[in-house]
Sequence to fold (140 residues):
Amino acid sequence: MKLVTYLNFDGNTEEAMTFYAGALGARITAMMRFGDTPAAEHVPADAQDKVMHACLQLGDDMILFACDSGCVPGQEFRSHEGFSIAISTPSIDETERVFAALSAGGTVTMPLEKTFWAERFGSLVDRFGVSWLINCDLPT
Fold:
């Protein structure tokens, strides 16, 4: 069993997933558009190029899915509230790199700093409205 986060965006999934791929050092393994599906004839013309499903792969077992909401009747985009994506990084350097990359154009809600539970911890809301918690564990 695997737990996977699935994000919905307001028409900018491709931009967000490209941003995350660069920030996290991941790769996009799928980018299916509404216009490429068997139901394409039922999708409004302005939504044909929107993303129905995208997959971002980080390492062997970390996956982030996403799609554009509001492209077909009955689906509306709702803001990213009530959750955060947490990342554990292997080193202070990687923690600082990921934090800087994800916070570009976003809002830092807690600056990256040493805490009683971590070598570094910080939180941010990225430029797409997604909340992130970045953590580098204390050495054991």
